[in-house]
Amino acid sequence: MHVSILRASTHFDVVTLIHIAVLFPTWHRPSVLLLEQAISEAVQSLIPERINENTKNREEWLTAAKELRFPYWDWTHPDTGKEGLPDIFFRETLELLLPQDEDPEMIGEVENILKFYHFGDQGRPAGFRNIFEEYDDPNSPDTKRAKMAYFQDWKRTYRWPSAKQHDPEEDYVQLNDRLKGTTKLPLRGNWRELTNSVARLFCFPDPKKVIEAQHPNVWDEFSNTRFQSAKKGANEWIPGQPRWKCGSMEQVHNNVHSVLGGTGNMNDPDYASFDPIFFLHHCNVDRIIAFWEHVYPEYQVGDGKYWTYPDNKKPGHFTDYWGKYGVPRGSEIASDSHLTPFRKEDGSYWTPNDLQWGSAAAKSMGYTYPPIPNPSYPDMPEHAVSLEPVDAKTRLEHAKILKLHFAHGVSVDNDKAHLVSVQLNPHAFGGSYTVEILYTTSTGELEYIASAAAFTRSQESGCAGCKARREAGETSENVIVLPDDVVKKIRESWGGDPNATNEVILKESLRAQIALPLEGGVVAASSKTLGTSYNPAGATLAARAISDSPEARSLNFKLEDYQKPVIKLHSVPSAPRAPSAPRAPSDVPLGSRWEDRGAVLNEWF
Fold it and tell me: What is its EC number (predicted)?
């Protein structure tokens, strides 16, 4: 496997814009492979220099150097919910086994290279910018609070840093509380919602029950939050287009960035990949994608044409609407599109066809992932899901096993699952933010359920495509699963008609708020949350109206229309069902059995 970048600009004004795009999963595969390859080459050149014929376990060292592959951080593992971030990511030092000639084994203690990346004596790369956003403090009219990220001045990467220009403190206590789900602060996100969102990805129907023309539509929903096949232009959602409400891999990926970053590197696409944890996170994203492709190999971008309502007489075509490095704006996308700037050994670009898991070309990638155990038979490896090729019937069984493996507190056998969809403008606040979904208890307090994260470059970014998206009002969609026990608690807290349906109760009980990565950073809450029993600090915090001119920015207590998320409640079969036989292309689209229960939250303060 060979990955290289040739003739690629390193200036931030020329950016590969791959988020909110149908090639999001595929593009990141060579991105991770490139660094893995570089590390492997470095290790294989260093090890022979460090060992000789007398080195103990010499052959083991040589084999280890040859077989070294990138590790992944499995943030879906239950230990994440118990302990938070593994301490290997934030302890000060690491103990390493070093090659040596005599007993005993030599243990060396080194600075922890997984905690941060230091930019060295050369300083930050050209194009690094400080980011400043200022907000009024509602509890102190003469006080302003600032969201600060000093990327131009910080000498290394940071996670949840304080707003200091030099040597900020990192708040790992709050970071871990967020992962464990024990924090009461905004900008939350926890292991439970992450793993449930992954479980939901395996609810797509049997490919044999979805007409072939809709297979690209399925890939579109899974791959990214833009969901181009369901929209006309940047933000006009089309009624009747096939929807499965299973969520997207990009959505889960975004939530991890939000939880880890705060105002630090991981929460800004321009700077995230400098943090060492970025690649271990993306390696886990790639692992989940690999198992999804194993289960659903039929769902691909294909020729780039997707099914359109009502009869597919005029199929749509995926486009790189905004353009990026090496790809002109408006270029059509298909399985043979170039994954710029990544090239093969012969100088040609890698394509999605080359990297589809299980394809002949992908076998040259030189890595795989361990099997995922069947929770019904955890100690029986023969019942685990491996990435070895299997027949279609077995793949469907594997989808059920994977859903069981990842689900936590979400029944996979109920007749109905309850979901919340959040359509938002990722650029509404000039950077990353989250929309948090909550519910009211019997005492009038609010309890957190889950969130939808916008992982977005700041307005100061030189990304031309981002500016075009911002000007066009591009929207994205996120799907949040309501756990069964949460639905039960909401029903138990309900003080209205005891015979009311879950849909009625949920619609009256659900709340939302918008949070930015700053202390007390709630900038808006849905109107119903601002009753006598709920008035958190910052609930009426001013939201910035975005404009291209910094001098023209103003502070407003009322959101602009483009800043308001559209939040809807849906009821869907927890295991999507389909008719016994595929329908003809002219029939009603399959996979659309979700029920739109209407907007939940329309008014914002």
Answer: 1.14.18.1
Kindly give the parts of the chain with pLDDT less than 50.
5-15, 138, 413, 529-557, 575-605
SS3 at position 163:
coil
The pLDDT value given to residue 274: 96
Domain-wise residue ranges, the chain: 174-601
pTM (two decimals): 0.86
- Give the amino acid at 466: C
Q: Locate tokens 């198992």: which residue?
A: 291
Q: How far is CA 521 from CA 461, 540, 542, in A?
A: 22, 10, 10
DSSP code for 324:
B
- Contact (Cβ atoms closer than 8 angstroms) between residue 218 and residue 311: no
pLDDT value at position 168? 94
Using one digit for the tens of pLDDT, what is the confidence trace for 256-283? Answer: 999 999 999 999 999 999 999 999 999 9
Fill in the amino acid letter for 226.
R
The whole-angstrom separation of Cα 237 and Cα 245 is 14
> Which runs of E-coded beta strand occur in 388-445?
417-424, 433-440
Instruction: Name the token pair of 215.
Output: 């297979």
Inter-residue contact 589 to 242 (CB < 8 Å) = yes
347: left (phi over 0), alpha (psi -120 to 50) or beta: left
Q: What is the biggest distance separating any 2 CA atoms in the chain, rounded to whole angstroms?
A: 81
Closest CA to 420 of 513, 516, 524, 510: 510
Distance CA 158, CA 170 (A): 7
Question: What does the CA dihedral 116, 120, 123, 129 come to, rounded to 10 degrees?
Answer: 0
CA angle (83 as vertex; 279, 31 as ends), nearest 5: 5
